[in-house]
Design goal:
- Helices cover 40% and strands 19% of the residues.
- It is of the alpha+beta class and 276 residues long.
- The chain is elongated.
- It starts with 7 loop residues before the first strand and ends in a 9-residue tail after the last helix.
């Protein structure tokens, strides 16, 4: 249900066409007090009245006019007001520092072939890696969200690796953490004025998902183990995994990046508000 007294944080927003040919906005809000999610609809008339900057990811807003649709379990919003404007994401200096730390991590690799491969990927795509979000809505969906997510995965890997009984090559583990979402630099695009994250339609013409891109990149560069870790990092086929971790007799390395990725997606700096 909608709470007109609550503060809501904007999680995701997009505009599409109705069957009647009019515009319809879809807005996902997080109740700041309860941490619950509210899915909202805005008709074209409302969209024309409200400033699009109101829907920037991370903005804190109040709903001042709405009705709840029990049948569709969503809120029809007719009016909103801005309580606190959000930033677009990470400051440039922070993004630069994250990128430098990734390069320093790669310099630790003992495998020179792997070091060159991963470093070349980062240098070639440096600007996109620094600005890309890590998702459209689920986590780290802000400017620099991807490099924040990758950095968190590296931190978790550093913490976990020394106590892993079933050993895995450290270079491969860290490389997989860096590359597991590399396809997202092409899969998503972000609006630098509103902070809206959308799918890149050009990417979707050639690729099924960022996982397929990362898998292909690693396989064509003689890194099959990393490719398989990327293929399984979503955990389940219905979550987008190319390899479902419910399958029997998988080797142990298939699981680790999935769990590290999941830790960051649930306990990392998920929202813009977490950056403060």
């Amino acid at each position: 249900m909608v709470d007109l007294n609550a503060d809501y944080e904007v999680m995701a927003y997009c505009v599409g066409d109705t069957k009647a040919g009019t515009k319809m906005g879809k807005l996902q809000l997080r109740n700041v007090g309860e941490n619950s999610v509210l899915n909202c609809i805005l008709w074209e008339e409302t969209l024309n009245r409200l400033d699009s900057k109101l829907f920037r990811t991370g903005n804190v807003v109040k709903i001042t006019g709405a009705s709840f649709n029990e049948k569709f379990n969503n809120c029809l919003v007719s009016n909103m007001e801005l309580i606190k404007e959000a930033s677009l994401g990470l400051d440039e200096a922070v993004r630069e520092e994250h990128f430098k730390n990734l390069l320093n991590t790669i310099e630790e690799f003992k495998n020179e072939e792997l070091k060159k491969f991963v470093k070349d990927v980062l240098i070639k795509n440096e600007e996109l890696i620094k600005i890309s979000p890590a998702a459209k809505a689920m986590h780290h969906n802000y400017l620099g969200g991807l490099i924040q997510h990758i950095s968190e995965c590296i931190e978790y890997a550093r913490a976990i690796y020394p106590v892993m009984y079933k050993k895995i090559n450290k270079d491969i583990l860290f490389a997989a953490c860096i590359l597991h979402d590399i396809g997202k630099i092409f899969e998503y695009k972000i609006d630098f004025e509103t902070g809206f994250v959308e799918y890149n339609e050009e990417f979707k013409k050639d690729w099924i998902s960022h996982s397929q891109y990362g898998f292909t990149l690693c396989m064509t560069n003689n890194q099959p183990q990393i490719a398989k870790m990327i293929a399984s990092h979503h955990g389940r086929a219905d979550w987008g995994a190319m390899v479902d971790l419910g399958e029997k007799d998988l080797e142990n390395y298939y699981y680790i990046v999935h769990h590290i990725d999941d830790l960051s997606a649930k306990f990392g700096k998920i929202f813009i508000s977490d950056l403060k």
